[in-house]
Design brief:
19% of the residues lie in helices and 31% in strands. It is an alpha+beta fold. The chain has a domain at 7-118: Beta Barrel (OB fold (Dihydrolipoamide Acetyltransferase, E2P)), CATH 2.40.50.
C-alpha cells in the first residue's frame, strides 16, 4: 500500500476509460501501475496501483491532453482509449510517467490523489534553454571579474571580529602572560 503522503511515483498505464462527473464534465481515468526504479534507471512493477482522472473543460482540456501525451498517446481519437485490452494500452500509452501524488480529504476520509502527470523527471525545474558546456565555461570566465568586483578587491568579506570588553578581565595567574599567547594580545584566554 502506498504511504499516505505527498510523493512522486514513476508509473505506466494499465487501463483507461471515460465517464461524466456529477457536474456534467467529461472525464478520463487512467489506472497506473507504480514502478520501482533502481539506481541504473531500470523499472519494474511494484504491484501498487493508483488512478489519475483528467477533465475536459475549457481550462483543463489542454493539460489533460498534454498528460495523455506524456503517457505516449499520439492519437486524436479519444474513443480508442475507451477500455483497451492490456496489449492495446501498451501500444497506445507506451511511456512511463511521473505522477505527482498528494493527500486529499474525500467524504471525511483521507486518500491519495494524482495531481499531475509529468514526463519522467519533468516535475523538476529546468530551463527551456540550459546553459552548459563551453557556453557555461565562457559565461563563468566572463563573470569572474564581476563577482570579484561585487565582493571588493580583497575577495570575500572577512567576518567582523567580536568586540572586546572595555575592561580586560583580571588574570588569575598574577598578570603573567601565557607562554603561547601571541605578542600584542592582552586577554585572559587559557592557551
Amino acid at each position: 500500500m502506498l504511504p499516505m503522503h505527498a510523493a512522486t511515483y514513476r508509473a505506466r498505464a494499465l487501463a483507461c476509460g471515460f465517464g461524466v462527473a456529477k457536474t456534467g464534465t467529461h472525464q478520463i481515468f487512467v489506472t497506473c501501475e507504480i514502478l520501482d526504479v533502481d539506481a541504473d534507471g531500470n523499472e519494474k512493477p511494484s504491484g501498487e496501483e493508483i488512478t489519475w482522472i483528467g477533465s475536459f473543460t475549457d481550462k483543463t482540456t489542454p493539460r489533460t491532453i498534454e498528460s495523455l501525451g506524456y503517457f505516449g498517446w499520439t492519437g486524436d481519437n479519444l474513443e480508442e482509449l475507451d477500455d483497451p485490452s492490456p496489449e492495446r494500452i501498451f501500444e497506445l500509452m507506451p511511456s512511463s510517467v511521473d505522477l505527482a501524488v498528494d493527500v486529499e480529504d474525500y467524504e471525511g476520509k483521507q486518500q491519495l490523489r494524482v495531481k499531475w502527470v509529468n514526463a519522467p523527471g519533468g516535475g523538476k525545474f529546468a530551463f527551456k534553454e540550459p546553459l552548459q558546456g563551453s557556453a557555461l565555461k565562457s559565461f563563468a570566465a566572463q563573470m569572474r571579474g564581476t563577482i570579484r568586483g561585487a565582493r571588493g578587491a580583497t575577495g570575500p568579506r572577512a567576518p567582523t571580529p567580536p568586540t572586546r570588553p572595555a575592561q580586560p578581565p583580571s588574570r588569575s595567574n598574577g598578570g603573567a602572560r601565557h607562554p603561547n599567547a601571541p605578542a600584542g594580545v592582552d586577554d585572559d584566554l587559557p592557551f
